Amino acid sequence: MEQMFVVSVMITCLFCLTKFLERRYMSDDKKPLKDVVRDSIVVMVCSLTGAYIYFQYSDYIGDFFNIVTETKVLNPATTQVFTDVPTF
Description:
Elements: H1 2-26, H2 33-56, H3 58-69
Helix pairs in contact: 1-2
């Protein structure tokens, strides 16, 4: 759960820094700071939603890309092999 927040906070900080630099040096028209804060909140919500979807469904996403790219990848969590001495 905390990984999602770290990812979304990093994305939001990069967005705020980029907007600040654009507003300060590149743009002729000065937008109010209210618009930058509103855009940053939207970016935070979108990145948090994207990170949640990715971390919750990463196994399904990996399986989907294995099918799309036609690669045969064994998942060690589901592939189990008996390697001990038989007990009979």
